[in-house]
Amino acid sequence: MFLETTDSDVSPCPQLPPAAGRRKNLEFEPLSTTALILEDRPANLPAKSLEEAQRHKMEYEEMVAGAKRREMKEAQRKKRQMKERHRQEDSISNAMVVWNNEILPHWDTMYGTRRVRDLWWQGLPPSVRGKVWSLAIGNELNITPELYEIFLSRAKEKWRSYSETSSVNDSESDGGASLADRESSLDLIKLDISRTFPSLFIFQKGGPYHDLLHSVLGAYTCYRPDIGYVQGMSFIAAVLILNLEEAEAFITFANLLNKPCQMAFFRVDHELMLKYFAAFEVFFEENLPRLFSHFQTNSLTPDLYLIDWIFTLYSKSLPLDVACRVWDVFCRDGEESLFRTGLGILRLFEDVLLQMDFIHIAQFLTRLPEDLQAHTLFTAMANTHMVSRNRRWAQVSITLRVQGNVSQ
After folding, report:
1. For the chain, which terminal residue's Cβ has fewer other Cβ atoms within 10 angstroms, N or C?
2. What stretch of H or E contains 387?
3. What is the reported pLDDT for 51?
4. CA–CA dist 222, 177 (Å, integer)
5. Where in this chain does the entry annotate a coiled-coil region (predicted)?
6. Predicted pLDDT at 328
């Protein structure tokens, strides 16, 4: 059944005039309520006085002028940003040409020159970073890609055997591997991979680099069962995987961990680690006496923050792009640069740290600000002098190891 509508059924409300008619004095639709001050009041309200209308007009013009000033300032900021980005891109592009055409083809004769070292300090172009790291770290262990495949096969076989065991509580040997070894090569690696650069979502299960990272770490535990897997290794391997092919990443990883400083830490050689901490404190007191005294007053020893920094080569504590710059200099200068970086961080945040107590300092140094910029850190590092009583880091470090003190 259909109902007929009559004129009496239609709402008696009059149709509103079109927007253009209501705002005929405006050249555009106002983007915010601030423009409403120019509107005439509704017919059922008293009209604006001439003075009020003029005041509203002036207020609106001031708001528009303020908005234009802000827009201009923002446009200038973006222009400066774009200019700086183009400058950096040009700089990287020019540096890439120099590295590819002049330095890498003549590495043995070029890498120690002043020109190359200066260029190195400015940061390696991403396209050559892995190659330079690989050359600088070297391959004293003479590992080949074929050797990597052998140890990777052993790791896969061990994991396969382990997964087939009925219980992880079974302490019987399996394929020549103890329960502790099997757990370190599977459970601990698996756990650590899930915590490696979690914000990137590329190393976690299902991510494009998950299996690759698992392979490199697993192969290393078979290559060096005397060391096995130690927490923190996953960050080092992950950074290498981002910059090198799989086999080359493993080769560089194994050689890097074979360096004296890394070996001391990953073997947990307490006596040698204490010598490194003592050497660090010599330069800490030399460079930052006030902060050094503040740390001593609060019983804040270097092991509370340096261990995490050294174990991961700062890749866990610093933004990834900044950490890669730190790696650049580490590959150039060796272990000294790791402690110089630590002092640079302390110098950069000295004023903040001086206001903190033990707990807040420890928390701050464990989780550094995410907006930390490479150029500010490297300025602080450049102002850090690795000379104490006319002795450089290597001399102080050796003296501590041999004599046990640096008082002479």
Report:
1. N
2. strand 387-388
3. 83
4. 10
5. 50-92
6. 97
Residue 177, phi then psi, degrees to nearest 5: -110, 135
- 392's enclosing H/E stretch is strand 391-392
Residue found under tokens 């802000």:
70
Q: How many other CB atoms sit within 10 Å of the CB of residue 202?
A: 18
**Per-residue pLDDT tens for 35-47?**
555 566 666 777 7
Tell me the pLDDT tens digit for each residue of 174-207. 444 454 554 455 678 988 999 999 999 999 999 9
pLDDT, tens digit (0-9, with 9 covering 90-100), for 229-263: 998 999 999 999 999 999 999 999 999 999 999 99
Query: Which parts of 138-259 fold into alpha helices (H)?
Result: 145-164, 179-183, 189-194, 210-223, 233-243, 246-257
Partners of 139 in the β-ladder: none
- Token readout for 130 is 């892995």
The pLDDT tens digits for 180-189 are 554 455 678 9
Looking at residue 214, what is its pLDDT?
94
The amino acid at residue 26 is L
Confidence of residue 19 (pLDDT cuts 50, 70, 90): very low
- Contact criterion met (CB below 8 Å) for 326 and 118: no
120, 124, 100, 123: which is closest to 111 by C-alpha?
A: 120
Look up residue 81 and give its amino acid: Q
Q: Is 92 exposed, middle or buried (0-12, 13-18, 19+ CB in 10 A)?
A: middle
CB neighbours of 52 closer than 8 A, spacing ≥ 6?
none
CB 309 within 8 A of CB 372: no
